């Protein structure tokens, strides 16, 4: 019976692993404090400050949010719809454009590549962008206001995917598919896409986070259609309402702030906002890390 030799662990590996563990702990501590604070009693939190061991626990912050009833469920549903549609269309456009400008025989390749790269350096600014989307595309107070602005604004993802196509798709495989009679679209669909799952998963994750965390488009473009609010827009409005009530209470108006967990509700809002991303991330973590680190073509 052969005895397997144990791999010798170098000091560098020990130091590297210990360092990464420390970094992970420092990243998890704020999240743990956030979660614990959301379940703390509001009065105790205001009086004693943030603590990993609160003197009194309470779910009043979540009761306050759940009190919105159907409104918060509708906002959650709208977030899933916008994130799903926006991510799908954005990935389709990003992948197609990245694959096109990765081809050496594409007419106008240099111009398209420069055009994409140029948008990474400059943009038109908030006011021209608002005027273009509202005056030209007429997306104000429609669901397209939450989807269209982020479809192709991340040129970095296009360049990242283009580099992956160039360095990780063997030209011999693409040429063999062309010799077998496959069209360019068939090569893209049946060869390039299956071989590019790590980078696609990476860009999907980034795009999902972008759409899920977006609240600015709803703030700018949804002025009357509050029924189209995503969860981020709704939670942002709740924070503004709490701040408004707090201001009125300070100036002496009759507002019962004791019924509003103004401090803990902010923590609960943050927990509700990041919960879906925290659930999804472990399932794409493997491809996510691979897409970031993979560089050379493997034979």
Provide tags for this entry.
299 residues, 13 helices, mainly alpha, disordered C terminus, single chain
Task: Describe what you observe in this structure.
- The protein is an all-alpha fold.
- It contains 13 helices and no strands.
- It has helices at about 10-40, 40-50, 60-65, 70-100, 110-120, 125-135, 155-170, 170-180, 185-195, 195-215, 215-220, 230-250, 265-295.
- Helix 1 packs antiparallel against helix 13 (about 265-295) and helix 10 runs antiparallel to helix 13 (about 265-295).
- The two termini are about 35 Å apart.
Task: Describe the secondary-structure layout.
Elements: H1 11-38, H2 42-48, H3 60-66, H4 70-101, H5 109-121, H6 126-136, H7 155-168, H8 171-179, H9 184-195, H10 197-213, H11 216-221, H12 231-250, H13 264-293
Helix pairs in contact: 1-13, 3-13, 4-7, 4-10, 4-12, 5-7, 8-9, 10-13, 12-13
